[in-house]
Amino acid sequence: MTTQAEPQAPSTVKDRSTTAGSTTLSGGAVGVSEPAADRGKTSIADAVVVKIAGLAAREIPGVHAMGGGLSRTLGAVRDRVPGGRPNVGRGVKVEVGERQTALDLDLVVEYGVPIKDVARDVRENVIAAVERITGLEVVEVNVTVNDVHLPDDDTDAGVAEGRVE
Question: How many helices (H) and strands (E) would you count in the chain?
Fold first, then answer.
């Protein structure tokens, strides 16, 4: 009786593994006989996925801000410190596995926009951006709307109008 051996995967197959806050997309090959593009390994830190998702979510009309109340308050203070940079990952949490990722987003939406439509658009844009840029499969994007931004919220809260002139 003749048995066939199962085909072996070529050495150029992408191997994904996770190590402390980053995902390795390709194990990489070693040796001068390998193509240049396959020599070495590629790893993506979880923070990269957070930033990509944060930027993609903010691109959607109707998204005013990201993060919960305390997160936004601390972020506003940090943004006003000279030399401080805005945190594009605020309001984004990720879980990254070997080939997949799941994201949780906290949003503040503009008053008057249909929340269901904004959430759908955010999901579509985040999934497209993360999958295109990282190659990871996005299994879910959970959207939590924490607040609604009212047009009156833009007025300077520190200057109160007096009742008497």
Answer: 3, 7
